[in-house]
Amino acid sequence: MKKILLAVVAVIAMCACSGEREYLNYRGLSMGMSAKSLADSLQQQGLALDTAHSTETSFVLADTIARNFVVTVYHQNDTITDILENYSATYNDSTSNLWQAKHDELEKEFGWPNMGKHGDLHKEATFESKKGTVILTLLNTYSPTVSARYSTSTTKD
Question: Per-residue pLDDT tens for 51-69?
Fold first, then answer.
């Protein structure tokens, strides 16, 4: 009887573990961790918490020197929903080069993206996996920016 009970418990444990959700990694940190822990870890990596722009549903962190790099961690009840990186520059070549470097990095991890827009001034690439979605956007307009939105929502099953 004990052997049957142990076998049932083992099967239940294996089912529970196999159904566990995998999350995207952001800068080596799992998006499955609490939003507060992720914000604390990003502060340890050199970003400063911007308390003036943080809200009860988002933490805003920025580089302390030029403030041209901002990370916003969106959450619901301390569970991460999205992370938005924004890079701003003073000239278009720097953002184009940054977009290409991020594109190549994400392509190695996720494969070829869905390219919604592909022009000189506006590019958008969507990388999808079972772990989540990353949308990389280049806007080379009056104020050139590159943004990357890491989302825990998935479209692939």
Answer: 999 999 999 999 876 668 9
Q: Is residue 16 helix, strand or coil? A: helix
> What's CA 138's distance to the chain center, in Å?
16
More confident residue, 43 or 117: 43
Strand partners, 76: 79
The greatest distance separating any two alpha carbons of the chain, rounded to the nearest whole angstrom, comes to 74
- Which contacts of 60-64 are long-range, i.e. CB under 8 A and separated by 24 or more positions? none
Residues 87 and 145: beta-carbon distance below 8 Å: yes
Confidence of residue 91 (pLDDT cuts 50, 70, 90): confident
Q: How far apart are CA 115 and CA 23, in angstroms?
A: 23
* Phi/psi at 118 (5° precision): -150, 80
Query: How many CB atoms are closer than 10 A to CB 36?
Result: 13
Q: Is the pTM value of this prediction over 0.90?
A: no
